Amino acid sequence: MEKQNLPVIFVTNDDGVNARGIKALIEAVRPFGKIVVVAPTEGQSGMGHAITIKVPLRLKKVHEEDNLLIYSCNGTPADCVKLGVYEVIGRVPDFLVSGINHGSNASISVVYSGTIAGAVEACLYGVPAVGFSLCDWNPEADFTAAQSVVRTIVKNLITNKLPKWTCLNVNIPAVSLEKLQGYKVCHQTHGVWREEFEKRNDPGGNPYYWLKGEFQNFEPENMENDEWALANHYVAVTPIRIDFTDYKFMAELKNWNYNL
Amino acid sequence: MEKQNLPVIFVTNDDGVNARGIKALIEAVRPFGKIVVVAPTEGQSGMGHAITIKVPLRLKKVHEEDNLLIYSCNGTPADCVKLGVYEVIGRVPDFLVSGINHGSNASISVVYSGTIAGAVEACLYGVPAVGFSLCDWNPEADFTAAQSVVRTIVKNLITNKLPKWTCLNVNIPAVSLEKLQGYKVCHQTHGVWREEFEKRNDPGGNPYYWLKGEFQNFEPENMENDEWALANHYVAVTPIRIDFTDYKFMAELKNWNYNL
C-alpha cells in the first residue's frame, strides 16, 4: 500500500528500449519510485528534437511487473515522452530520466542528442528532467559508476528544485567509480563538430557520403566547461535552459534599421 | 567581374527543395550575392536538429545558372548545411538564410523546427544565419510581404554584426505588406504544445496514433514575446543563443549534495 505514494519516474532514451544503458538506468532508479518506460523500438541517435508527423505512432507493451511498466514506440525520444505522458500515464510524471546514453552529449552535441531531447520535452511540461550520458561508445561499457551518479542526482532531484524551464545534462567520464574525481557544475563548452564526409561510390558509380565528424573545442583552456570536467574525470553537470532567447543582444537588435 | 566579390549566401529549408517558400526566399536574396542552395529532397518538417548517421547521404545538382546553384539532398536541414559547407562550397558561406517556412516557428516550436536547425547549424560555424517562417499553412500562401521582410533583414545582416553563437528566428504574420505593423524584437514565448493524439485502429484492429497538438501560451499578456508580436501583426525578430547553459542557476546547483 505504501508503494501508492511513490513518485512516478519516467524513463526514456535514444539508443532504444533494448540498449544496455537504459537497462542500467532502470535498475538505478527503481528504488525511488514507480517506473514507466517508453523508449524507441530502435536506436534514434542523432535525431535531436525530431517529432514524427508523417507516419503514425505505435505503442507496444513489452514488460510489466510490480511498479515497472515498459513500452516501446516506433518514434523518436520526443514522441516517446509525448505518448507516455498523454496515452500511458495520463498525467505528467514526477521526474524524467533519459539515457544512459552510450557516448557523450557534452558541448554542442546537446543539439543533436535524442537523449537530451527526451529531457527537454519533459521539462516543457514542468517535469524535473535529466539526461545521462556515459562517455564510452564501447558496447561492453561498464555502467556501474554511471548508476551511482544516477542515484546521487535522483536523490538531489527529490530534495531540491530545478527552476522551471531548466533541465540537466549529466555526462559521466568513462572511468571506474574509484577514479571519479567528483561532480562539477559546468557550462556547455563552446565547440563544433568539424565534419569530414567520407565520399564513396556505389556499384553504379554514383557518389554517396557518410557523415563522420571530429569535435573541435573552442575553449580548451577553460576549466568551467563540461569538456574540461570530463577530461579531468569529473561528472559534468550542465544546467540547460529551454528559453533560447539571447536577452543581452535584444537592445542592440532593436537598433537595426527596419525601414530598409 | 564585379560579381566575383559578391558574398556567398547559403539557402536551405525544411519543406524541401521544391517548396514555394524556398523559391520565394531564393528570389528575395538573389540580388545580394551568389546563391548556393542545398535543401532536402522531401519535406523534413518536425525533424528538429536531427542528423543522418545510419544511411548514406546523396547530393544531386538540380539547377545551375549565373550565380545560382541548387542541390537537393536526401537528409535533414542540418545535413544539408554540413554537406553544403564541406562538399559543395568548400568553405563557410558569408550568410545563411533558411525557409521561408510554411507555418510559424515562434515560441517553443523552435526546438522542433528543421528551419531553425539549418540556421543554428550555420551559426555553429560562425556564419550570420536567419530562419524565416510565414505563419500560414495554406499551400497557396502569399509570400510577397515575407520577401520584403527577407530583404530588410538581409540588408541589416550585411551592415550589422550578429554576436558569435547567436542567430535569428524571424516569424512573419500572415497579413499583407500594407497591414504589417513593423518589426518587434522579442523573446521566445514560454509555451508548450499540448498533444492530443488521435487514436485509430488499423484494419487488423491494432491501435496507432497521430500526433496533433494545440499550442498553449503560458504568458498571453506579455507584450515582449514573439506570439504577441505575431498576433498583433508585427514581424517577430527573436535572437536565439546556442549556448543553452542556465548560468543563473549554476551557483545554486553547486550547492546540491553530491555525496549522497
List keywords for this structure.
homodimer, 260 residues, alpha/beta, nine-stranded mixed β-sheet, 13 strands
Describe, in plain words, how this protein is organized in 3D.
The structure is a homodimer of 260-residue chains. Chain A has 260 residues and is of the alpha/beta class. The first copy, chain A, has a single domain, classed as 3-Layer(aba) Sandwich (Stationary-phase Survival Protein Sure Homolog, Chain: A). The first copy, chain A, is built from 6 helices and 13 strands. In chain A, the strands form 3 sheets. The first copy, chain A, has a 9-stranded mixed β-sheet, sandwiched between helices. In chain A, helix 4 (144-159) links the parallel strand 6 (129-134) and strand 7 (166-172). In chain A, helix 1 packs across helix 4 (144-159) and helix 2 (77-89) packs across helix 3 (114-124). Chain A starts with 7 loop residues before the first strand and ends in a 6-residue tail after the last helix. At the A-B interface, helix 2, helix 3, helix 4, strand 11 and strand 13 of A face helix 2, helix 3, helix 4, strand 11 and strand 13 of B.
Remind me, CATH topology of chain A?
Stationary-phase Survival Protein Sure Homolog, Chain: A
Total strand segments of chain A: 13
Tell me the domain tally of chain A.
Answer: 1
Using CB atoms under 8 Å apart, which protein chain pair has the greatest interface?
A: A-B, 78 and 78 residues
Q: Report the top-level CATH class of chain A.
A: Alpha Beta
* Helix/strand class of chain A: alpha/beta
Q: Please provide the ordered H/E string of secondary-structure elements of chain A.
A: EHEEEHEHEHEEEEEEHEH
Strand numbers in spatial order across the main sheet of chain A:
3-4-2-1-5-6-7-13-8
- Low-confidence parts of chain A lasting 5 or more residues at pLDDT below 50? none
Cα-to-Cα separation, first versus last residue of chain A: 69 Å
The total of helices of chain A stands at 6
Largest sheet of chain A: 9 strands, mixed
**pLDDT averaged over residues of chain A:** 94
Shape of chain A: globular
Q: Helix fraction of chain A?
A: 10-25%
CATH superfamily of chain A: Survival protein SurE-like phosphatase/nucleotidase
Query: What is the assembly state of the chains in this entry?
Result: homodimer
The name of the CATH architecture of chain A is 3-Layer(aba) Sandwich
